[in-house]
């Protein structure tokens, strides 16, 4: 594999990990709004990270796969534009909720935000899943059957699995469940949906890779077990174990897909920037990524640090 492709995969895995954490928090807002104060404390820094790293991933993808811009523009312009419009609702209503003093309206705005980000996630994942399966795509004419590419068994099954994985991650990271049986049940369902989606979509290429490169599936399962163990016995390490598990799981799925897109009908390498430019793109990407990561780690640490007035800090003081 080209180093520049692996680097792009890593950026995507980081971005999607953060994005799934936001989706999981949005789901928790809809499921249990009474924990809104706790959810918002975590949601604000994650919300900022998603936007920044999302832009960085798009810029790096444009530099890495410049010839992919034309087919993507032809194929996915409708779902991308629709996701962009709904993304405005995501940003606007989250902002409104931050400054509104009326608690009733705040609840409405946050629910609009939560529903918006779930719709954006569904459309964005549908585009990504379409590049994996090729369902509804005609590469010879660069045309797309939008409804078929979105409303098919593979896409819906995989998205449900991804949403459950997001919910599992947030239940552990942010301690939203005192009984470990619930996150166990959710992550088992998630894995069943994700693996079943390959069979539902009849993706023989990925199924073959899954068996021949079984370690790419085994490693995430082992890490999930470790995350559950840290939650049960070493809870303070869970906030590190779970994001690493998400990152490795997403990266493993990307590596299963390599080297072909659209169910192995189009090679990643055929879309690459010219060989002479690759070292420069990789160097700029690494430097830019390190700078962004440095500031985002500071932001995340500030957002997730336990302030003196937080319920967790009060509990700790009382125990002392």
Order of helices and strands: HHHHEEHHHHHHEEHH
Question: Strand order across the biggest sheet?
Answer: 1-2
In percent, how helical is the residue content? over 70%
Could you tell me the number of beta strands? Answer: 4
Q: Rg to the nearest angstrom?
A: 20 Å
The portion of residues forming beta strands comes to: under 5%
Distance between the termini: 53 Å
The biggest beta sheet reads:
2 strands, antiparallel
Mean pLDDT: 86
SS summary, helix count: 12
Structural class determined from secondary elements: mainly alpha
- Outline the low-pLDDT stretches: 307-320
Q: In the residues, how many domains can be counted? A: 1
List the keywords.
single chain; 320 residues; mainly alpha; 12 helices; 4 strands; 2% strand; disordered C terminus
Task: Describe the model.
The chain is an all-alpha fold and 320 residues long. The protein has one domain. It has twelve helices and four strands. The strands form two sheets. A two-stranded antiparallel sheet has the order 1-2. A hairpin with a 4-residue loop joins strand 3 (260-261) and strand 4.
